[in-house]
Design goal:
345 residues; alpha+beta; 23% strand
Length: 345
C-alpha cells in the first residue's frame, strides 16, 4: 500500500502555459507557493479475488472490468501513461473541494503518478514528476491546463517558476529575509466564494482570446519581477505586495468576461471596503477561492464584512508531493487473474 500527500497551491502573479501559444513564443513566469492543504491518495495492487479488475474511489466509486474502462480521466491517463494493466485500487480524499482554483486537479495527477511509481518500486525527481504530470494532462488527456500547478505540487515551497521558450522549466526558491514570508503569511486571508467551475472551460476561452491580449500578458509577467523584488528587499513595505495584487487582478479580470462576474466583484469590493489592500480570485476564474492581502489590524473587520463566506486558515508549505506510507505487498501469480475471470464469468 502506498499513500501520497500532495500540496495545493496559491498563485500570486504571472502565468505558466495557461495561454500556451503566447508563452511558447515569449516564455512565462509565475510567483506561487504551496500551502498546507493537501490531497491524499492511497493506491495498491488489487488482489485478484474480486469480481472487478480495478476499483477507484473519489466523489464516486468505480468498479471496472479493465483499466481503460475507468471514467476518471486522470486515473485512466496515469495508468495508460505508465502502461499499468494490472488491477489496482485507488482512493482519493482532500482537505479542500475541487474546482476552486487551488490546483487540485494537477495535485491529484502528481500525487497519483508518485504513488504508482512507488507501487512499481521506482523513484522520480521533482522535475521529472512535474514533467510527467504535464504530459499526462496536456498531451494524453488534451486538457486546456497550464504547467504551473504540476510544478508547485511536485516541488512544494514558495517559488518563482520560469517557463522557457524551449519548453524547459526552472524553479527558483524564494527564501525572503528576516521572517519576510512569515510576515506575508499573516497578511493573507483566504475565502471560499461558494462557486465552483471547471477550470479547463474558462482556460479554453482564455486561450482563444490571447492573441488580442498580448499587452496584458506582458504586464502580468512584469508583476512577477516586481513581486519577487518586494519579497526579497527588506527595505520595501509589504503593503506594496498587496497593492500589486490589486493591480494584477484588474489586469487578469480584463482578459475575458468569464474570469469574474457581478457576485465576485461584489465580494472583492467588500474586501477592499473592509481594509484589504488588494487580492485576486485564484485559478482560472469564474469562482472558487478569493485571496485578500489585509493588514493584520484589519483582519477582524474583513472577517465581519465577509461573515457569510467560509474563511480558510492556511500556512505556506515547503513540502512537495511525497510518499507518507510505503508498505510493500504480496505480488500474486498472474494465473490467478485468469482463474478469477473464469469464476466470475
Amino acid at each position: 500500500m502506498i499513500i501520497t500527500a500532495t500540496p495545493l497551491r496559491i498563485s500570486f502573479f504571472g502565468g505558466g502555459t495557461d495561454y500556451p501559444v503566447w508563452y511558447r513564443e515569449h516564455g512565462g513566469a509565475v510567483l506561487s507557493t504551496a500551502i498546507d492543504k493537501r490531497c491524499y491518495i492511497t493506491c495498491r495492487r488489487l488482489p485478484p479475488f474480486f469480481e472487478y479488475h480495478s476499483r477507484v474511489s473519489y466523489s464516486k466509486v468505480e468498479n471496472v472490468p479493465r483499466n481503460d474502462a475507468i471514467e476518471h480521466p486522470s486515473v485512466r491517463g496515469c495508468l495508460q501513461f505508465l502502461g499499468i494493466e494490472d488491477g489496482v485500487e485507488i482512493h482519493h480524499v482532500a482537505d479542500l473541494p475541487a474546482r476552486t482554483g487551488l490546483g487540485t486537479s494537477s495535485a491529484f495527477t502528481v500525487g497519483l503518478l508518485l504513488g504508482l511509481y512507488a507501487l512499481q518500486d521506482k523513484m522520480r525527481s521533482k522535475q521529472a514528476l512535474a514533467t510527467d504530470a504535464i504530459r499526462v494532462e496536456q498531451n494524453l488527456l488534451k486538457e486546456a491546463v497550464g504547467a504551473q500547478d504540476q510544478v508547485s505540487a511536485a516541488y512544494g515551497g514558495f517559488n518563482r517558476i520560469n517557463f522557457q521558450t524551449d519548453g524547459s522549466i526552472d524553479v527558483k526558491r524564494i527564501l525572503g529575509t528576516n521572517g519576510r514570508l512569515a510576515d506575508l503569511e499573516q497578511h493573507l486571508a483566504l475565502y471560499f466564494t461558494g462557486f465552483s467551475r471547471t477550470a479547463s472551460e474558462i482556460a479554453q476561452e482564455q486561450v482563444r482570446v490571447t492573441p488580442q491580449r498580448q499587452r496584458e500578458l506582458e504586464l502580468m509577467l512584469q508583476l512577477v519581477d516586481e513581486g519577487e523584488d518586494i519579497l526579497t528587499s527588506p527595505s520595501r513595505s509589504l503593503d506594496e505586495f498587496g497593492r500589486l495584487l490589486h493591480e494584477g487582478w484588474q489586469i487578469k479580470r480584463s482578459l475575458t468576461a468569464k474570469i469574474s462576474n457581478a457576485s465576485i466583484d461584489d465580494i472583492y469590493q467588500a474586501g477592499l471596503d473592509a481594509g484589504a489592500l488588494g487580492g485576486k480570485l485564484l485559478g482560472a476564474g469564474g469562482g472558487g477561492f478569493m485571496l485578500f492581502f489585509v493588514p493584520p489590524e484589519r483582519r477582524q473587520a474583513l472577517r465581519e464584512r465577509l461573515r457569510k463566506l467560509l474563511c480558510i486558515p492556511f500556512a505556506f508549505s515547503a513540502k512537495g508531493s511525497q510518499v507518507v506510507v510505503y508498505e510493500p505487498e504480496e505480488v500474486y501469480d498472474p494465473s490467478l487473474v485468469n482463474e478469477r475471470n473464469i469464476v466470475y464469468a
